Amino acid sequence: MSKHHVTTTINGEPAEYLCEAQQTMLDVLRDELGLTGSKEGCSSGDCGACTIIVDGNITCSCLMLAVEAEGRAVTTIEGVADGDTLHPVQQKFLEHAALQCGFCTPGFIVAAKALLDSNPNPTEEEARYWLAGNLCRCTGYDKILRAVMDAAEVMRAQAAR
Amino acid sequence: MPRVNFTAPTTIDEAAAALASATGLAKILSGGTDLLVQLRSGRMKPDLIVDTKRIPGLIGMREEGGKWIIGAATPGVMVSDNHAFDHDYPGIVEGMDLIGSQQIQGRASLAGNLCNASPAADSVPAVIAARATCVIAGPNGARREAPVEAICTGPGRTSLQKGEFIIEFHIPKPKAHQCDAYQRFIPRTEMDIAVVGCGVNVTLDAGGTCVDARVVLGAVAPTTVIVEDAAKALIGSKLDDATLAKLDAAAQAAAKPINDKRGTIEYRTKVAGVLARRVAAIAFDRASKR
C-alpha cells in the first residue's frame, strides 16, 4: 500500500509528510513531525487531550486522518505562544496553577484559545460548555475556568487599547 | 489502526463509482467522529474510505426554491452558526449541537449522524419532525430522494445500497407559526448518549390552535419513532392539560426501549412522556412567535 503525500500548513509554516491512510493526525503530529505537545488520552474523541485547530475549528486530532490535512491550516499547542511570549491563556494557567500533571493542559489551552478567538466575552457557563470536551483528572476544573475567564478579561483589555 | 485505502474524490460520480467498485467494505468519511472510533475499536473493518469533503456542495447550506439545502458533510458548527437556519429550525440546531463536544462539533455531520444509525442519534428526531428529505447519489449518475425516516432500518443499518451515499438534505422552509424543538435526557451534563430524545415540530393557526404536528422519539426503539398518536393529540389543540396528558400517554405507548446502564425500560418510558410534554410546550411557544 503506497503512502500518501500531504502538503499542509502547521502553525503558520508549510509542512509536508508521507503517511499511510489509517494514520491519524495525532499519530503524524507526534510520531512523524515531532510535535508531541498534543497528547493521546483516549483515542476516541472523548478527552480532548489531542485538541488542535483545523481551518478555525477545534477538533480532536485522534479523530482525523492525517491525509485530511491536505491544503488545510492546522494550529497545535506548539503554535499558541508567540515565540517566547506566552499567550494570555498560557500565562493565566501558570498564575492560577490551573494544572497539576499537565497532561490535559495542551488540549485545554488550544480549546480555550479557540473559545476566546470566537467569543471574547464568554460567560462562565459558556466557557464550561465549550470546554466540556476537555477532561481533567487532577484539578477539578475550578482553577482552569478561573484562568480562562481571567485570560478573557486580559485579552479584552488588550484589544481595547 | 488496521490498514485501509483512502480516496478523496472531487465529484459525486467519482465517489459513487469508488463506493460501487470497492471489493470489500467501503465507508464514507465526513467528519469521521463515528468512523474513526469504529476503525480503532475494530467494529468497522473497511477496505476503502471515501472522503466526501472535497466534493463541491457537500459542505454548505443555502436557501433555494422554498427549502433549506444542507450538504451532507456540513459540520455541526456551520449549522449552529447559521442564524437564519437557527431561526427557522432551532430544534434541529439544538439536536445537532448536542452531539459530543465543541471538538466533535467542528467535524460531525448531519449525514454521518443519520447514517451511523444509532437509535440515540441527536440530530435525527428534529430532522424527521421537519419532514426533511435527503438526496441519495448512486452509481452512473443515479439520484433519488427519500424521506429521512426511510434511511435507518435498525441499529447501525441503513437502507442505502452499495454505491449509494447521501449528498444533501432538503428541509422545507417553515410556514407561518411553525417551529420545532428538541431535548434529550442524559445522565451527565454533556458528552453522553441520549437515554431519550424527543423532537417536536408544530404548525399553529393565527389563533394559536395546532393544525399540524410531528412528534419523534429517539433512543427508545431500534430506530427513531414517529409517534402518530402524539401528533393526533396535538392537532386541534392549544396544548391544554388534557392534551398534554394524551401526548404523554402516546409517547409512553410508542416507546419500546431497552434496559442498559443509562436507564431502565420503565425509566426511559416515563421520560419519553416527560420530554414530549416539555418539548411540545417549547415548540408551541416558539411557533406562536413566528
Walk me through the structure.
The complex is a heterodimer of chains A (161) and B (290). Chain A has 161 residues and is α+β, with helices and mostly antiparallel strands. Chain A has 2 domains: 4-79, Ubiquitin-like (UB roll) (Roll), CATH 3.10.20; 88-160, DNA polymerase, domain 1. Chain A is built from 5 helices and 5 strands; from the N terminus they run E-E-H-E-E-E-H-H-H-H. Chain A has a 5-stranded mixed sheet, with helices on both faces. In chain A, strand 1 and strand 2 (13-19) form a beta hairpin. In chain A, helix 2 crosses helix 5. The radius of gyration of chain A is 16 Å and the shape is globular. Chain A starts with a strand and ends with a helix. The model of chain A has no long low-confidence stretch (mean pLDDT 97). By secondary structure, chain B is α+β, with helices and mostly antiparallel strands. Chain B has 3 domains: 5-51, 2-Layer Sandwich (Uridine Diphospho-n-acetylenolpyruvylglucosamine Reductase, domain 2); 61-172, 2-Layer Sandwich (Uridine Diphospho-n-acetylenolpyruvylglucosamine Reductase, domain 3), CATH 3.30.465.10; 178-288, 2-Layer Sandwich (Enolase-like, domain 1), CATH 3.30.390.50. Chain B is 34% helix and 24% strand. Chain B has helices at residues 12-21, 35-41, 76-81, 83-88, 90-97, 102-105, 110-115, 124-129, 228-234, 241-254, 265-288; strands spanning 5-7, 26-29, 48-51, 61-64, 67-71, 133-137, 143-147, 152-154, 157-158, 165-172, 178-185, 196-204, 210-218, 225-226. In chain B, the strands form 4 sheets. Chain B has a 5-stranded antiparallel sheet with strand order 4-5-10-6-7. In chain B, strands 11-12-13-14 form a 4-stranded antiparallel sheet. In chain B, strands 1-3-2 form a 3-stranded parallel sheet, covered by helices on one side. In chain B, a hairpin with a 5-residue loop joins strand 12 (196-204) and strand 13 (210-218). In chain B, helix 10 (241-254) packs across helix 11 (265-288). In chain B, 54% of the residues are buried. The mean pLDDT of chain B is 97.
